[in-house]
Design goal:
FAD; alpha/beta; binds flavin-adenine dinucleotide; 5-stranded parallel sheet; FAD/NAD(P)-binding domain; Thioredox_Rdtase; 7-stranded mixed sheet; Ferredoxin-NADP_redctase_2; 19 strands
Length: about 325
């Protein structure tokens, strides 16, 4: 068992964690990043990224994350492959334990563990992920300009995604398993008033259907939840919008979570209720959930951590 000590311990190696690392390293905090089960984070699971500023041409998600990691290492970050399974935030340095048995001590802690989109769990969904099936309209909607798309879900996320997609597609179909939506009333009113959107009620997805060469999505097989009847809807893109699961289980009972399970931070900062613990990226942001916003709040977390340490050191020297 090894004990790793640092001024800035970062959980997560997505855009938020690596941006915090770049700023933390350049502030002389010698950060350690514990990478978790998905080194590089969610962008490792996608191909084309067209909306990350700074690149005129389409770039690949894994390439972007490789560059971010190299940049973080280049300025002095230590990357460690481990998954944190236990936390003690009752005193500083915060003490976290890894699956490997190693212990991580941080004078400050930056939590950047992200949030995973929920999927339906169908084999065809996995097969066609990135080839017509997506869980992010903001990320991928642009690729379906002028084409027919479907959105699966009935809550706020689904309605927001459907409305957003009408910026690109003239034909958006919302597929919902019930006969009414859970989304807020005002969103429902906007949805029903939009001539580009139609709704299919009482339908679940049986299968995402592949076709063409190279194989991509050509439609969705649906099952009626009342009659059991099977039908088919042609579509070039399908957006699964049934919510997200923030990776916060580790912190339940240690830090306050909001009603959707996201880490709660002070408005306008990345500070949690525990002094010295900061949260950034999708784990604390259920509104935007983009790589660039995750990177932005990662930068904020590093600056907040650096200021916290400077103030703590000043207070300690005055007391001495
Ligand atoms: C298919 C897909 C395509 C997307 N396309 C785009 C796009 O084109 N443009 C865009 O801006 N955004 C896109 N996004 C969204 C973007 O990927 C996320 O907003 C962004 O990755 C969030 O960054 P993050 O650092 O907060 O979290 P994540 O990227 O989710 O990273 C979380 C990190 O935390 C680690 N972790 C979790 N638990 C632990 C633990 N217990 N111990 C240690 N580490 C842990 C994980 O291993 C991972 O490294 C896409 C998302 C998906 C899924």
């Amino acid at each position: 068992m090894t004990v790793h000590h640092t001024k800035m311990l970062i959980l997560g190696s997505g855009p938020a964690g690596l941006s915090a690392a770049i700023y933390g390293a350049r502030a002389g905090l010698s950060p350690i990043v514990v990478q978790g089960i998905q080194p590089g984070g969610q962008l490792m699971t996608t191909t084309d990224v067209e909306n990350y500023p700074g690149f005129a041409d389409v770039i690949q998600g894994p390439w972007l994350m490789e560059q971010m990691q190299k940049q973080a290492e280049h300025v002095g970050t230590r990357m460690i492959t481990d998954i944190v399974t236990g936390v003690d935030l009752s005193r500083r340095p915060f003490r976290l334990t890894g699956d490997s048995g190693d212990v991580y001590e941080g004078e400050t802690l930056v939590i950047a563990t992200g949030a995973q989109a929920k999927w339906l769990g169908l084999p065809s969904e996995q097969e066609l992920a990135g080839r017509g099936v997506s869980a992010c309209a903001t990320c991928d909607g642009f690729f379906y300009r002028g084409r027919k798309v479907v959105v699966i879900g009935g809550g706020n996320t689904a309605v927001e995604e459907a409305l957003y997609l009408t910026n690109h597609s003239p034909d958006v179909t919302l597929i919902h398993r019930r006969d009414s939506l859970r989304a807020e009333k005002i969103l429902q009113e906007r949805l029903f008033a939009n001539p580009r959107i139609s709704v299919l009620w009482n339908k679940t997805v049986e299968r995402f259907v592949a076709g063409g060469e190279p194989a991509g999505l050509v439609g969705v097989d649906l099952k009626d939840t009342v009659t059991g009847e099977i039908s088919h809807v042609a579509a070039d893109g399908a957006f699964v919008a049934i919510g997200h699961q923030p990776a916060t289980q580790l912190f339940a009972g240690h830090l306050p979570l909001d009603s959707d399970g996201y880490l709660a931070v002070e408005t306008g900062s990345t500070r949690t209720v525990v002094p010295g613990v900061f949260a950034c990226g999708d784990v604390m942001d259920k509104v935007y959930r983009q790589a660039v916003t995750a990177a932005g709040t990662g930068c904020m977390a590093a600056l907040d951590a650096e200021r916290f340490l400077a103030e703590a050191e000043f207070a300690a020297s005055r007391a001495a």
